Amino acid sequence: MCNLYSNRMSQHEMRRIFDVVPGLDHLGNAAEWPAVWPKYEAPVVRLAPDGARELVSAHWGFLTPAVSKKTGKPIAPVAWNNARDDKMTGGLWKDSFLNRRCLIPATSFREAKGRSPATDVWFALAGDDDRPPFAFAGLWRAGQPGVAGDQGAWLTHTMITTTANDLVRPVHPTRMPVILDPQDHEQWLKGSPAQAMALLRPYPADRMRIVREGVGILADGSP
């Protein structure tokens, strides 16, 4: 389960990498995102109504209402920041998988290993750059049914997870985020459900690396 990632791309880089024209960049004057936690806002690339790509800001995690087990009264909504690849055709994810897929720009993600204290392990792609840019496979939705207040109107995104590869497995034995190759971005955004499902697979371990590791490393800075 991934609950922390980083995006150190500038807006200009994201527009170039993800083929977004300046007029469809709705981020305003934004800075980098060295640590994105559930419920935090971060950029996603989605399709505008005319089919062009646009950059928007969305809170991480689909929200669902929750109540206290002790009192039965409403409490803070739950943020579902990960969606399993084998659950796309039902429940919370189905409509977004069919109609609202997105790209989540990133430069690394963290998994925690062990407890008391946990070791933070940051993963990135291999390459000549310090943190090569990439995109997670994501879903988005506007409005959070059953959630009251301002949060009920949030635009949210979630990332899809799949089986862990050989690099991630020693840290998280079961799951890792789905990372998409650039040539697959268009298929993810516009392809049929079957074409999109075919992209939900582990990223090759030999094309990734660990870039930071230690206790309390909660933001992706320089090694």
What does this structure look like?
This is Abasic site processing protein. It is an enzyme of class 3 (hydrolase). It comes from Paracoccus aerius. InterPro entries: SRAP, SRAP-like. By secondary structure, the chain is mainly beta. The chain has one domain (5-215): SOS response associated peptidase-like (hypothetical protein yedk fold). It has helices at 11-17, 94-99, 185-190, 193-197; strands at 5-7, 33-36, 41-47, 53-60, 62-67, 74-80, 82-84, 101-106, 108-113, 119-125, 134-142, 155-163, 175-177, 179-180, 208-215. The strands form three sheets. Strands 3, 4, 7, 8, 11, 12, 13 and 14 form an eight-stranded mixed β-sheet that branches. The longest helix is centred in the N-terminal third of the chain and has 7 residues, at 11-17. The mean pLDDT is 94.
Task: Give the key terms.
11% helix; hypothetical protein yedk fold; single chain; 8-stranded mixed sheet; globular; 223 residues
**What is the element string, with H for helices and E for strands?**
EHEEEEEEHEEEEEEEHHE
CATH topology: hypothetical protein yedk fold
Query: How many runs of DSSP E, i.e. beta strands?
Result: 15
Which homologous superfamily in CATH is the superfamily? SOS response associated peptidase-like
Envelope shape: globular
Set out the fold topology.
Layout: E1 5-7, H1 11-17, E2 33-36, E3 41-47, E4 53-60, E5 62-67, E6 74-80, E7 82-84, H2 94-99, E8 101-106, E9 108-113, E10 119-125, E11 134-142, E12 155-163, E13 175-177, E14 179-180, H3 185-190, H4 193-197, E15 208-215
Parallel strand pairs: 4-12, 7-12
Antiparallel strand pairs: 1-2, 1-9, 3-4, 5-6, 8-11, 9-10, 10-15, 11-12, 11-14, 12-13
